[in-house]
Amino acid sequence: xxxxxxxxxxxxxxxxxxxxxxxxxxxxxxxxMDNAYWNMPKGVTQISHxxxxxxxxxxxxxxVIGIGVFGVMFYSLFAHRRSRHPVPAQFHENTTVEIVWxxxxxxxxxxMAVPAAGTLIKMYDTRDSDLTVRITGYQWKxxxxxxxxxxxxxxxxxxxxxxxxxxxxxxxxxxxxxxLHDVDRPLVLPVGKKVRxxxxxNDVIHGWxxxxxxxxxxxxxxxxxxxxxxxxxxxxxxxxxxxxCGRDHGFMPIVVKALPExxxxxxxxxxxxxxxxGTPPAAExxxxxxxxxxxxGSAPGAAADQPAAVDxxxxxx
Length: 317
Ligand SMILES: [Cu+2]
What we know:
Helix content is 36%, strand content 18%. It contains six helices and ten strands; from the N terminus they run H-H-H-H-E-E-E-H-E-E-E-E-E-E-E-H. Helix 1 runs antiparallel to helix 2 and helix 3 runs antiparallel to helix 4.
């Protein structure tokens, strides 16, 4: 679980391990415990915390309803069984019952809708942002453009994962760190600043999703979707394209690197001077060799300040 301290997670694993020992699932279960996907991640933004709270709130309401409904059902099955009550009670069209079982669900829905609407309104409020990043989806990569800063680059599947995924590559994906969840150039963002995203696509519909930021929206060609985030903690946050967008849909991960403000400013200054000098900014690893035919044209207005068009990942065996 994301909230467990390492010591608590270890203790829980030790408790569960004997149960799983000898089962073919043991290794897998240990991995699942480590990666902790038992629940929705709490995330690193105020909005993601609110979304998590709403999720838990609705979950506990469902638990109480479940216990109530099944409790009444099993009690009735037992207490009013045929041997004790051969003639069933009749309360068809009983006005009181009708009113009660209409009003109670209505009230439950209101109780859930009020806080959910409050969070939704906040999610849609992109005003007063400190920075705007335009995100464009391509088959099969992302382009990040820091609006008004002259900085723009493509973010593509990391070369080692790209090599391992080729048919007959002979590379064990388990040996590749963050296999299919790492990119050559992450989206770098400042911590504690409101960042607005303008999301669109160059070809087909993609989806930009980073669970830790509680952001998930469709990137639609010819249409701009807005969203925002304000990250509380420095770190690396990973996500994926979430709209089935073609052959390499599974090979266009998202990585967000949140830096303290001073470090971010330093990074941005470097990128700006590299862009101004016309030198391609250094990718963390060299881009994958070009092999696939390019199906994506250049984005409108992006060519001028786009020094390094990274080759898209190839898939051909
Ligand atoms: Cu996609």
